[in-house]
Amino acid sequence: MNTVPSHSANAALMSLEAAAAAARGGFACMFSTSDEYETALILERRAQGRYDAARSRWPLAMFAGCTLMVAGTVLLFS
Question: How many Cβ atoms from other residues are within 10 Å of residue 37's Cβ?
Fold first, then answer.
């Protein structure tokens, strides 16, 4: 067995250690809690415009219709 470390063996060992450190770092999560992940996810989706409210006139029309029906019922029975 060769007990004298050679230069190429040291270089190979250091290369393997660097590759192992890079591989371990690839599995790390950048969020420490699920709240941080959800906050980042929501911020990213807002930046993409996914949470923009669609402007519809139906709620206003339904409110006006119900108001007119209630006013008509009050006038009918008074």
Answer: 13
